[in-house]
Amino acid sequence: MKKEIAERLRDNSLLDRIVTAEEAASWIQDGMTLGLSGFTRAGDAKAVPMALVDRSKNESFKVNVFTGASLGFDIDKKMAEAGIVNKRLPFQADPTMRKKINVGEINFIDQHLSHVAEWVRGDVHNPIDYAIVEATAITEDGYIIPTTSVGNSSIFVDKAKAVIVELNLSQPAGLENMHDIYELGKQGERQPVPLTSVDQRIGEIGIRLDKDKLKGIVITNFPDSPSTIVPPDEETAIMANHLINFLREEIKAGRLTNKLAPLQSGVGSVANAVLHGLLESEFEDLEVYSEVLQDAVFDLIDSGKVRFASGCSMTLSKEKMDHVYPNIEKYKDKIVLRPQEISNLPEVIRRLGLISINTALEVDIYGNVNSTHVSGTKMMNGIGGSGDFARNCRTAIFVTKSLAKDGKISSIVPFASHIDHTEHDVDIIVTEQGYADLRGLAPRERARVIIENCAHPLYKEQLTDYFEEALMRGGQTPHVLEKALSWHTNYASTGTMLQKEKETVTI
Amino acid sequence: MKKEIAERLRDNSLLDRIVTAEEAASWIQDGMTLGLSGFTRAGDAKAVPMALVDRSKNESFKVNVFTGASLGFDIDKKMAEAGIVNKRLPFQADPTMRKKINVGEINFIDQHLSHVAEWVRGDVHNPIDYAIVEATAITEDGYIIPTTSVGNSSIFVDKAKAVIVELNLSQPAGLENMHDIYELGKQGERQPVPLTSVDQRIGEIGIRLDKDKLKGIVITNFPDSPSTIVPPDEETAIMANHLINFLREEIKAGRLTNKLAPLQSGVGSVANAVLHGLLESEFEDLEVYSEVLQDAVFDLIDSGKVRFASGCSMTLSKEKMDHVYPNIEKYKDKIVLRPQEISNLPEVIRRLGLISINTALEVDIYGNVNSTHVSGTKMMNGIGGSGDFARNCRTAIFVTKSLAKDGKISSIVPFASHIDHTEHDVDIIVTEQGYADLRGLAPRERARVIIENCAHPLYKEQLTDYFEEALMRGGQTPHVLEKALSWHTNYASTGTMLQKEKETVTI
Question: Can B291 be counted among the known catalytic residues?
């Protein structure tokens, strides 16, 4: 153990900063703002948040919790149960925390993932009292080496009044040299971000540490929570095929080559499954420039389909961890992990011309996308990076199954009950029914192709009826306003979006 | 006249390309796509489109019309009346064309202004058959010098199969050397855009011309249509004061200095009036990085408040034209005109950290903004550049009067009937009632401050009633879905958004 620590804590002058998680947690005071490492279950600070939860059994306090994205290790769940979270941002994915958010007990700020660092740097968000970040190592020359994610750790450490490092011995030592940490500097004073290819390194191997701010080092030994991703199914395989067909058409039209363009794929099972489908494609020498690197990316690397992947976290299933971590050296020249501000930076996304694939919760007939709110009101997880990518990429693709809840919900609706991505940012919709290419189409044209290509047959007629009634009213984006949200209110009152008479017919 | 032409058409080998507008218009065939110069009434191609309209009296055809933004000179009106437009993008502001769009006779693509060039370059939009661009001069070394706007002219000329230049003798010769034309190159192959300050020149003084593609030169002599801007009134002066108060608070908080940050202001009377209010402020050495430079910018330059302004067009009232054009030399080291892809580029907007001021049509209680659609269905003008700026700037400010139609419409509504800017992109709302600083607030908190600070007293109670009923239902973004759009349907059926009983009380 001592030897292991010495290998990872390579600045002897810092040995006396080692404390227990309990002691570190005891420094945190009511009303403080914490900047935690962690991005979709990867590389989260684990011991200190847990000790803080424990402390709350005997003491009443609340803190603001800022992270990269969602946390693993049930940290969000336990913090929510303990009632110690006042403000939470910018993303979470825990059912218990979700409930607390939806009853208004936690103030959840649903922010574009690339914007958080900008607001922390610019002193718009609350000042960070403690940055608590997981590390693979602290180097002899004073760099914190992150673990399986970078997230917002570098800006949290930079701006925090004090820093606590969780040195996690269970994270592969080989993660060192996989990160590329670049600090943009203040708006108005910064230079262009020099990144022009997915495999380029523009920064440093770790987060520069101001030793005076380092208040404590906690030694931990907990692995990341594995991802809970659902494996590809028949429908996601069909969706992947539709996507591949779209990409083939792009090649035919001369807009892409067989190497495509750097791919971004959102977090979640559907996006992962769709990406997985590329394994069976003829495309080659692919590149990934994404935020989360999920199982599918590693399968694509292993198969030789993907030549390089840039991300800001590796979020893997247990099985994939067992495969990747012992072989981490093999991936070192194929993967780089960057701060989420860089993985999601509009400047880079547009320069590289990404193909973006993100998941929609619902889509309206004009192509406005709801990514976050069930029935327009209840938060699911958050917008994440989907806005960073969809707005700035080459082609913004949204994927969703056309039905939910055994057909009681149509993912294609007349009017989205909440909008995260406006029609201006939505190019392609893919469902298991087909794909709609909306580029260069006016709203009325968009509606026809979405209903025709993407809606489930169960709802096609009902959608067409709405659209035709709306057309009688006219407008650039025709609607029957008094019926626009009736599908959602019907679902709330009758348990299905299917209209009564239709239901009888189909039964 | 001959001398004047020689001074402006400085490549003698091109003299034989001079043709009449009628001849140039005769080359255009049914189904073609035209890329016209012109951005908010400035620098539009005038003679050839007019000749095309004339041709339609004897002949039936339709073309796709791509521009920078809206046109002056009643071109959109006359093209719409003539029925010769199939597809129109990305922005227009003409009442007659608007009608044709809203009945579905013209397919209008409402696109982010910075995205158009990307889609033309990437062959996503229809190929440009003819670029028809107004010029101040064609230089001896083959550059087309634009006039009062750049818009999308450079990419249209670059990608078009053939080019027609309207050499406009009425545009000040002194416009030469005011432009900075930069071509980004293909996505995936381009370098960072090197712009790091508003006054920096990164490109060339004109649009590089492939002489082989130059099919005709039409000599014209028509001035731009003056802007129809409404002068500041009492309410816009109050709004300007609220904005100034917000900026003062930013300085107090240490987030801005007295020089502020580069300002962007959307097209239109309210944004112009609000900018005008800065004349009376204590801020100094201001910079403008915007798309349209309207009257207020020139007043601010004249008063010494603004030290430099970068735009993609100058859209001036008649009075201001008469002042600026004879003195154009005076403005030469204070103004640069760029392609709209550069004036609106996310990369530059975020790097410089702009303060963006754009106009909202309606705002919901959670801060979602409708910029385009009256009652959710009828197109007004288009999103323009507001999305480019709001998403990527330092602080996204939206301004609107709290009432419209003599109080029959509240600009603050429970649920926006159309969304162009989601809550993720809306930081500050300013009405004549006050301003709401929404940064770092959860939706429930946003609602309280918007209703309290921005809504008109006439609608405050009604909004509060809705919000309180919605809170009973719960959610991150509470709504009463069956009543969410009732304000709009009430307005349609009763002529006012005021609820009946309230109306009685207030009368």
Answer: yes
